[in-house]
Design brief:
Layout lengths: L14 E5 L4 E2 L2 E2 L1 H14 L3 E3 L12 H15 L4 E5 L5 H14 L3 E5 L8 H14 L4 E5 L1 H4 L5 H7 L5 E6 L4 H10 L3 E4 L5 H6 L4 E4 L6 H12 L3 H20 L5 H9 L16 H14 L10
Parallel strand pairs: 1-4, 1-10, 4-5, 5-6, 6-7, 7-8, 8-9
Antiparallel strand pairs: 2-3
């Protein structure tokens, strides 16, 4: 479906990447359950695992936990998929430290969220990502998510960043197809969709995959969607898009991510444990709606098997 067949920087990260959940039990990271979730993803054929992103509740992890989760993922995956470590921060110095540690431990790439709360100028965004890219030898994926960070990385800034060696990808979560089109049309960066429900629309204008939340639940179906889109099979891709649409919407619409997906994992028998404050459990009415969505999709509540 892509209109441009020119190889892009970062194209080896095309396809499905899953922003993996961080499981908790009794206030601690549950590394046993983390490994179970990783094996589930690897069995499904997920090409890349993204630990300690938003879905992994990275803002609630201590620095030691943050680093250990990344190391556990790298060691468990053991080359069977790529690992794009979430090592961004609103502090450039902290982002540098986390990224250098992840690179030293064997991460294949780094996901770098836009510095949040600070609301830097566009020059500040540029200098921040440039500093990270120059400090490591692994590819950098710039994560543009203004809904979380309070400010958007503008297209002109991304165009400048595309000239920095080591910056090869953008996770585009502005929700704007025009933004995706502009980046694809004016840079050689690989664009990865940051909103599950927009995977097909973004791939239709040149994105090459998705960093997915819903992939925690149904990785095989997300892989099928991405493959159909990349092969230009619009009819099949459209059917899969509409099949997945309600599930994707509810994973990001019922409450702040990762509240709904953690609730869904529990309902389908793949419990990833509690949330950490300030995240709280999904409200009862929303749980009921989520159950209906799962049943409609064909996942039997609390059983983990297809209905």
């Amino acid at each position: 479906m892509s209109f441009d067949t020119t190889p892009r920087k970062g194209s080896d990260f095309a396809g499905l990447s899953v922003a993996i959940i961080t499981p908790f039990a009794d206030g601690e990271v549950d590394y046993g359950r983390l490994r179970e979730q990783l094996e589930f993803q690897l069995d499904a054929g997920t090409r890349c695992i993204v630990p300690v992103g938003t879905t992994g509740e990275s803002p609630t992890l201590s620095h030691d936990e943050h680093e250990r989760v990344i190391i556990e993922v790298i060691q468990c995956v053991a080359g069977r998929a790529k690992v794009m470590a979430g090592t961004g921060s609103n502090s450039t110095a902290e982002a540098l430290r986390l990224t250098q540690r992840a690179a030293a431990e064997g991460a294949d790439a780094t996901l770098q969220v836009a510095p949040y709360y600070n609301k830097p100028a566009q020059e500040g965004f540029y200098q921040h990502f440039k500093a990270v890219a120059e400090a490591v030898d692994i590819p950098v994926c710039v994560y543009n998510i203004p809904g979380r960070c309070g400010k958007e990385i503008e297209v002109e800034t991304i165009q400048r960043l595309a000239e920095v060696p080591g910056i090869t990808m953008v996770k585009e979560a502005t929700g704007k197809l025009d933004q995706c089109s502009a980046i694809v049309g004016s840079t050689d960066l690989t664009v990865l969709c940051g909103d599950d429900s927009l995977t097909l629309p973004m791939m239709s204008v040149g994105a090459e995959g998705v960093i997915s939340v819903v992939g925690n639940l149904v990785p095989s179906d997300m892989i099928a969607l991405v493959e159909a889109a990349s092969e230009g099979d619009l009819a099949r891709a459209g059917r899969l898009h509409h099949q997945l649409f309600a599930l994707c919407q509810n994973m990001l619409g019922l409450a702040t991510n990762p509240i709904p997906v953690k609730a869904a994992m529990r309902l389908v028998g793949r419990d990833t444990g509690e949330l950490r404050l300030p995240m709280t459990s999904l409200e009862e009415a929303a749980v009921a709606k989520l159950q209906q969505t799962l049943f409609a999709y064909g996942i039997a509540s609390a059983s983990g098997v297809s209905a």
